Amino acid sequence: MSAVTNAPDSGSPDTRCTSPGCSPTGRTTPTPPTVLMDDQALAGFLDVAASEYQLITPEAPLPCFALLLGSAEATTYHVRRIAFGRNARTRDPAAVQEFREEIVPKFGSAYENEHRGWWVDSHDLLRASREADALGIDLLGSIHMHPDWHRLGPPSERTRTLSERPTPMDRHLFGRTGWPLNLICYLERRGGEFYHALGAWAPPCRHSAEGADCPEIDLRIRTSSLTKA
């Protein structure tokens, strides 16, 4: 259910090694900034994610992916907007090659399923970057959905519980793209109602081994209904 992008160097704010103790010099590294996310931006993603969720079958683990636009300051990432793009997973030659030669051998045959994974269309990535520039904001990273695949998926995969935490493939991809902010939205349905959990993650330290953990970033969601009271 992970997302792949075609932006190994996105032009986002500088990616720093944010996990304590990972500096090759041995010095303590800065604490990751706090993420502030506008509730309207999150609601826009959840609306689309819920629609995609309802189309998921054991044969079609449909993904949901969007780019995060906002401002980056010394101690804060402020997510103000999201930008959706088309999935070029099966039609971009680089994506086809990446999945065939790296993703499938490393993370398993499940990723041969063309519905699994996301490769954002390069034209849509450029459009989002230009939109951010025009608004005087930054392209901060991405958000993608993890559904309760352990309930929806085939029997062979129902022992693998997903959550808002990164999977091994997520950790690989967060390191590959280098974006400083990576949000995972876990979405499940119980009794006909949707529930979600949200996690924010920095990429693994660039000096760490393959598969290293991603540092978690504090996340706060703005509640506009309270500010209007």
Plain-language structure description:
Residues 7-21 and 23-28 have low confidence and may be disordered. The chain is built from six helices and eight strands; from the N terminus they run βαββααβααββββα. The radius of gyration is 17 Å and the shape is globular. The protein has an eight-stranded mixed β-sheet. The chain has helices at 39-53, 93-107, 122-135, 149-152, 168-177, 224-227; strands spanning 34-37, 65-72, 76-84, 138-147, 181-190, 193-201, 216-217, 219-221. It is 27% helix and 24% strand. The longest helix is centred in the first third of the chain and has 15 residues, at 39-53. The protein is of the alpha/beta class and 229 residues long.
Q: Which terms summarize this structure?
A:
229 residues; 6 helices; globular; 8-stranded mixed sheet; 27% helix; alpha/beta
- The helix/strand series, from N terminus to C terminus, equals EHEEHHEHHEEEEH
Instruction: Give the percentage of residues in beta strands.
Output: 15-25%
* Span of the ends, CA to CA: 39 Å
What order do the strands of the largest sheet run in, or round the barrel if closed?
A: 7-6-5-4-2-3-1-8
Q: Kindly state the percentage of residues in helix.
A: 25-40%
Radius of gyration: 17 Å
Number of DSSP-assigned strands: 8
Shape: globular
Sheet with the most strands, sense and barrel status: 8 strands, mixed
Q: Output mean pLDDT.
A: 86
* Number of helical segments with 4 or more residues: 6
Structural class: alpha/beta
